[in-house]
Amino acid sequence: MSEVRHNWTKEEILEIYNKPLMELLYEAATVHRVHHEPNEVQVSTLLSIKTGGCSEDCGYCPQAARYHTDIEGNELMPVQQVKAQALRAKASGSSRVCMGASWRNVKDGPEFDEVLEMVRTINKLDMEVCCTLGMVTENQAQRLAEAGLYAYNHNLDSSEEYYKEVISTRGYQDRLDTIDNVRKTNVTVCSGGIIGMGESTEDRAGMLVALSSLNPQPESTPINALVAVEGTPLEDQQPVEIWDMIRMVATTRIVLPETQVRLSAGRTQMSQEGQAFCFFAGANSIFAGDKLLTTPNPDVNEDMKLFAKLGLNAMKPFTKKVQPKSVDAVDSEYQSLGENPKWTRPEHKIAKNEEAKQKAKEIRAAEKA
Ligand code: SF4
């Protein structure tokens, strides 16, 4: 039960997901203890270094420029500000900083050079650095690796079938190709998804088939519960039931036994008891800070109180892998190739996304009038 397998079928995963809950929890907790220290949970901080104005149409995302939401966009955050926030995160127990930019893909140029400098800066603070910047080429991934990046996040979001119901501006294969590009470097892969977008349990299992078939499997898998934001196509989705979240975490733990399973967006909707069940089921990372990119997140002090109640300890950085070496820009072996590749645009239509876009146009027109 606890070996790493890349040939899971959807049926096998569904059988696990649908087990009587106590059986499922027992199995997941057993697998967890074989591969991880059960009383350690990594605390990561997610930092939005460039917010809003994104060209993509991800149906769950308030940062997509085509929808009308309350998100305040900003330009790329200065390196010194990133450093100050990373230091604050470290002081409050975070061992990892994940920087997110609302880009479709990385473009070579001054902004990417700034991001590389942010990676070097945080690496020098002896913290794990993760980036989520959209699609990347192999050369861009190599440049991030050289700067000292520990992990690159690129979520599969859902099953390949349901992905087409949520996003029309880029394909599933593009996401797999980006993960492949990251795999050609020594940067670890972080990839997971979101539940509560209207997908079926088959889709949840399908996503786990896709993640588990990656060889090696991702070192980190975030499991997000949708936070339905007004103005997005998924604004009317009902919150995910805590039992679904627990089942998803437990099933992920069994199918991806060595992976860090990250309890990500949606924690504000979960009780402390619900979160404790998730930790028991094998979640061993949380995101700290009052915001997760743009959506609310529990206060870090509350998290620390919960850790104390449960006897959990914050994981030290580089527990799973040694700190990557960070090469200064002047000594760089990988130079900018001036890349801004044309990743594919499937551009099928998704009715909900079109409606939300139309509604946003009308609101903007009324605001101008
Ligand atoms: S999820 Fe990322 S790529 Fe999609 S709209 Fe939001 S910021 Fe853009």
From TrEMBL:
Coiled coil (residue ranges): none
Gene Ontology MF term list: biotin synthase activity
Family matches, as Pfam families: BATS (PF06968), Radical_SAM (PF04055)
Keyword Nucleus: no
InterPro entries on file: Aldolase_TIM, BATS_dom, Biotin_synth/BioAB, Biotin_synthase, Elp3/MiaA/NifB-like_rSAM, rSAM, rSAM_sf
Known catalytic reactions: (4R,5S)-dethiobiotin + (sulfur carrier)-SH + 2 reduced [2Fe-2S]-[ferredoxin] + 2 S-adenosyl-L-methionine = (sulfur carrier)-H + biotin + 2 5'-deoxyadenosine + 2 L-methionine + 2 oxidized [2Fe-2S]-[ferredoxin]
Keyword Iron: yes
Name of this protein: Biotin synthase
Family the entry assigns: Belongs to the radical SAM superfamily. Biotin synthase family.
Positions of the Radical SAM core domain: 39-267
Entry cofactors: [4Fe-4S] cluster; [2Fe-2S] cluster
Subunit structure: Homodimer.
Pathway annotation: Cofactor biosynthesis; biotin biosynthesis; biotin from 7,8-diaminononanoate: step 2/2
